[in-house]
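Tutorial handout. Part one gives the primary structure; part two gives the three-dimensional structure as C-alpha cells.
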Amino acid sequence: MICFPGSSKADSFLDKPISNGCRGTRIGVLGGIGPESTAEFYSKLINELQKRGLVKSNEDYPQIIVNSIPAPELIYDDINEEELVSYIEGLKELDKFGVDFIVIICNTIHLYYDLLQKNIKTRIIDLRKEMNKFLMKNKIQSVFILGTPNTIKKGLYRFAKIKSYEPNIRELSILTESIFNFNRGFERERQIKAVKEICNKYLKKGAQTIILGCTEFAVMLGNEDFPNINSIDILVNSTIEYMGKTK
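Part two.
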C-alpha cells in the first residue's frame, strides 16, 4: 500500500481501470530476491486484479510464470559480474517461455537494467522509470530513500527537481545488516525497529515520504502507518498497465 505524503492512512493508488482485461497475457516474474517479497508481489497482483473486476472466473487470470532464483543478495558495496550471472540466466529462462514482459522483484538489480535488457528479447519493466512517473504524477518534492548501499550511492532513485535525503555511512551499515537478517528470519522485530528509527529521523528533517527502495524494506514497512512509497506496489501497478498494452 502507498501512504501519501501528509497522510497517516494507507490508501491504494492502484485504481486506474484496464478496459480490455488480462486473459491471454503471459507475465514473467524474476523473483526470489528475496522469496517473501516475490510472494507479496504475486498476492498483491492477484488482489488488485480482483479489486478492479478484471477477473470473472479463474480463466480470466493472466498466465504468471515465476522464476524464483537463489541469487546472491546485492547488499554490499561491491557487486561483481559473477553475482549478476544468476539474474541474467534467470531472465533467459523466462525469455524462452515467450512471456509478454518481465517483472524483476528487486530494486538494486535495476541499476543494471540496460545490461539485463541487452541479454534478452522480452521487455523488462524499468522500475526506476516507473518510480519517477509516480513521483511526478503525485507532485512529490522530497523523499528519504531506503535501499542497499549501491542503490543509494549510484542514485537509482535520485531524480532532478526532487530533494533526496539519503542514509549516512553508519545508517547504511545498519540497513544492510537489517536486510540480511530480515531475509533469513533473524530477530525481525529488532530489524524493523532499527529501520523505523532511521526513517523517523528523516521525516522530521523534512522528507515528505519514504521510498522503500529495497523489497525487504517493502515487506518490513509496507503496512506501517507513515508516509511511504512501496516499490512492490509500483511494480504491481506497472504490471497491470503493461497487461493493458499487450492486448
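Part three, for discussion. The two ends are 27 Å apart (CA to CA). The mean pLDDT is 89.
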